[in-house]
Design goal:
151 residues, alpha+beta, 4 strands, 30% helix, globular, disordered N terminus
Length: 151
């Protein structure tokens, strides 16, 4: 019996841009992201902190800068796979408001890798995929609940 060589299965990879006000940064998002990594839920390919000054100038901040907006994400210093380029940083900078800071993150959903492998081993392939933002889901569920509630 011969076995066919298998390619490594990966989970879906997501690209997110999370914008924050400079005042009131708590560090909690980085703590939760660390938990996801340590639990094997996601793998971080890239993580950049981008700041946009009030005058519109943009900086990519060091994650290891003590006291800086990126410090909370210092656990991920060195997370640079090369998937993000200058165009991605420019696009992210264009999307955020002046006086704000953003985390630009590329991560793999490694929790899905066994499922992806099972689909491939069964001859299946992904033919469509989309992501519905959480606020849209919450809004839709609230509307459905309101419709079904007695008035």
């Amino acid at each position: 019996m011969t076995s066919t060589p298998q390619t490594e299965a990966h989970g879906p990879v997501d690209f997110v841009l999370l914008e924050f006000p400079l005042e009131g940064l708590t560090g909690r998002p980085s703590e939760e992201l660390i938990k996801l990594v340590e639990q094997g839920v996601v793998r971080i390919f890239d993580l950049l902190i981008v700041a946009k000054d009030e005058d519109g100038s943009v900086q990519v901040l060091e994650l290891t800068d003590p006291g800086g907006p990126g410090e909370a994400f210092s656990y991920f210093a060195g997370a640079q796979s090369g998937l993000l380029g200058e165009e991605d940083v420019a696009e992210a900078a264009g999307a955020i408001l002046p006086g704000r800071v953003a985390a630009l993150i590329v991560y793999e959903n490694i929790w899905a890798a066994p499922f992806v492998a099972a689909v491939r081993d069964s001859g299946g392939e992904l033919v469509a995929s989309t992501r519905i933002p959480a606020p849209d889901v919450m809004e839709a569920l609230e509307a459905l609940e309101a419709e079904s509630s007695p008035t």
